[in-house]
Amino acid sequence: MYRIGVDVGGTNTDAAILDINALDTESRGVLATCKTSTTSHVTLGIQNAVREVLALSKVDRSKVLNVAIGTTHFVNAVIENDARRLSRVAVIRLCGPYTRKVPPFADFPYALKGIIEGPAFYLDGGLEIDGREIFPLNPDQIKATAAAIVEAGIQYVAVIGVFSALDQKGLHEERCKALLQQFAPGLSVVCSGQIGGTGLLTRENATILNAAILGFARRTIQGFRYAMYKLDLACPLYLTQNDGTLTDAAVAAELPIKTFASGPTNSLMGAAFLQGLDHGDQRLADKQVVVVDIGGTTTDICSLLPSGFPRQAPNFVEVGGVRTAFSMPEVLSIGLGGGSRVRQSEDGGKVTVGPDSVAHHLTTDAMVFGGNVMTATDIVVASKAASIGDYENVKGIPEQLITGGKADMKRQLERAIDRMKVSSAPVCVLLVGGGSIILTEDLDGVEECLRPPHHDSANAVGAAIAKVAGEVDVIEILAGRDENEAIEAVRKTAIATAIANGADERDVKIVEIKKIPLQYVTNKATRFAMKAVGSLRARDDAVQNGFANGALAHAQEVDDDTTQEATKPEATNVQKGSLTKPTLGVNIAKYRPCVKDGVWYISPVDVQLIASGAGVLGTGGGGSSYLMALYTLDILRKAGEGAIRVVSLESLKDDGVCVFGAGYGAPSVSDERVSSGTDVFAAIDAVNKIMGITDFDGIVADEIGGGNGLVTFPTSARYGRPVVDCDLMGRAYPTLEHGTPYVYGQPVLPVATTDCKGNASVVLTADSNKRVEALIRTTCIELGNSTAAAARPLSGKVLKDYAVPNTVSQAWYLGRAVHLARESKIDFIEAISSITPVKELYVGKVVDVTRDVSRGYTVGRCVIAPLSADEEDDSSNPPSTTPANREKRHLVIPFQNEYLSAGFIPQFPTTSSSQEDSEEEIICTVPDLISILGSDGEALGSPELRYGLKVRVIGMPASPLWTGSAEGLRVGGPEFFGLKCSWEEVRDRGRANGFGVGEYQKPRSVIDEFNVTS
């Protein structure tokens, strides 16, 4: 019995045929492999490749159990904005009064949006975080919507229900789909619950893309079926998915987005199989396996987990410029391959290889083939490590250049492999790809480097041996329940799903379990993501599952239709870029904000810069600024520049009145049950009504850090009043009582808490600010753990005394520094230090992250290890970090949403927590700001931390409102968070040891610097 695997790449189509009864032999059952050119008609290319391996192997075609195909065909339609292959999509949100703040297609690139955007509908439905309905489904609304979609001439529909991961019985999305197809039978409907987990916008985006390629995918897969018929293969057809598992062709035709990126995964799985790493668990348990696929232009690196599957990319993945949430392998690509160009500096010193390449011109341009371009292949042949082309053409290359070139290639591969490590365990590298000859030396940090047999067809072999999976991604409410029973129920569901998908029940096992407590919530809401896999069941009737005669005729008809796809014109004259990236094409160094007569008129570029800076000031918390920036950019797009203004704190009259309004609750909820924006306005209006305030002079942010740093902008546009350049924290803190005026005795009450359904709760009196926090959090939980809150308006005089000044400007300058550093290729820390006091505390790599939920907050710690000497040599690291002054200890950072302190520990892991506590040397602590920056200079929130990230930790001095009094330190300092240290002692020790964050300086003012007087 045999299985055939096919992998369709942009250049070549690979095929392999395996004997499943010989998988344990030295040949691993591989009977034949072939490589053919990918044709413009993909079906024909597949047909040619399969025909060739069948001819080479001479097997009985009736004994072929199945064909498995991996292809990038569908994702290419999205990336290329191919209007011939993409359909318009109508979007239905089951959300009640929520989510209108960010409409569908909001962050799509303009070109893609112009091709696929259809009408959007907001209907009753959706769930709260605790499983309650926001509103029941309304069949009358659905009937009217179906009619409107048909009238618009649209066939494809995406249905997105709030917290669909909780809707395990299909009461909302699936019921809505059934009603739509009852009212309009011609509609094709995709439900978001089948696509991704929590995070409404990214799940919706993936669902829209899936719907947009649905028609094209159905035609293409019917074409694949027809190719099998032409080859006399009457067996089931499968497609490989992004995570390395198989899906039936019928399922793939409905969920094609899950097959977008199967190519790298097929290579990884095939390489591991060919090397025999599936024999016994001990080898996988003792080592981490990294597959390195070296081609002519690039090298792709992917890490194999102990489960035997690739590590999945964290958070969101961009497809065609669109943020999406679905399972994708994490692949690192670097510009190094057999055709990479080799250069030497003018002084004859440094030798560099890549990132540019001669690509498919290697056989004409490379020196070994008579060309005049020195490539990586030339270096290898000149060193006599390989015999390709004519050695006489390269024997004159100087030895220094050969040595330097080989060293640079070795260094690039070592760094890339290190970035893809998932632990500190020894590394086994599997080399595949035609360009793998360029690796001629042992790699530091790699215990073993292997080149499997048939390595040039590892992708096709990976498709042939792929397994079947059953995945479950749900949210369970664990309050009052036995957690083990909940986990067992999810486990059984995953296994049952795998068996239903075709897995052999004797071979199914759980390979992945994720338990993610949701932030802030108190009902123990926990996301469980579980995957079960098993070998494809070899059914007795497998070879009988071919086409009936009628199906064959239909397959041929559809295949012929596939070749005639040009039924829509290509999109032309479409605006480039997207709403989310206004700085594209902007020279940041020359950009000047619009400030006239003391008023700063916010532009889209300003919004993006402020969002980046607010992330740094968020110190790990404050929630994501992405949705709020998107909301603000959409307001500016509709209302025009000038709709949002900022004025200085000094410009306020002492008796002027300023209001407050912010998001309050769990970011994990607000990212799913997205607000409509009206809740903040309702909270402000409720407090003003109680206070008898009919007008006000400005809006002030409660905290400048994270998403709340931008929440004042939509409020400014709504009321026509300016944002004041200040906030009440100078950073992000987890509670309302951390507002600086309240620390110094100013009244916080009344406080209103509101949602988008018209609910409002007001606290009029309380015995302490701590009690106020407890009362509004209780209301927040009842209203779904995502609300808005507005405190008592304050006068201009109070704000001048107790607000942190110029923090909107500070966020802008920080964001500009990060963007300018990227644009000008200068050091991030150097750029930041030019505008604000900052101290780089550490450069290293995350080696451990632990998280839990306590009292409604995400608490945990992060451990960062020092970089090796070679890693320090990376140009992205600061030049001052040299072997002489490199820190050898690890850095530990505890967090409660925000980062609380940073301290050295001698080693990790320590033998006991008490040993660690006794030996920790804290070098920075709250209220000073601690931020962790990624390789692009953007701040990383505590939920984004994971093993292997290379980071830079910075400290910035807090406002004297926090550090200059006992009251400030009592509420904002380490004692409030239970840390066993004193801010004064940490400050003094830091000054003595060179880790002091410096003295606070009032942030520069954008208004003062750029003001133009008319």
UniProtKB/TrEMBL annotation:
SUPFAM superfamilies: Actin-like ATPase domain, CV3147-like. Pfam families: Hydant_A_N, Hydantoinase_A, S-Me-THD_C, S-Me-THD_N. InterPro entries: ATPase_NBD (IPR043129), Hydant_A_N (IPR008040), Hydantoinase_A (IPR002821), Oxoprolinase-like (IPR045079), S-Me-THD-like_C (IPR048350), S-Me-THD_C_sf (IPR024071), S-Me-THD_N (IPR010318), S-Me-THD_N_sf (IPR027479). One of its GO terms (molecular function) is hydrolase activity. Residues 869-888 are annotated as: Disordered. Residues 768-985 form the S-Me-THD-like C-terminal domain. Residues 606-763 form the S-Me-THD N-terminal domain. Residues 203-381 form the Hydantoinase A/oxoprolinase domain. Residues 3-181 form the Hydantoinase/oxoprolinase N-terminal domain. It comes from the Eukaryota. This is Hydantoinase/oxoprolinase. It comes from Fonsecaea pedrosoi CBS 271.37.
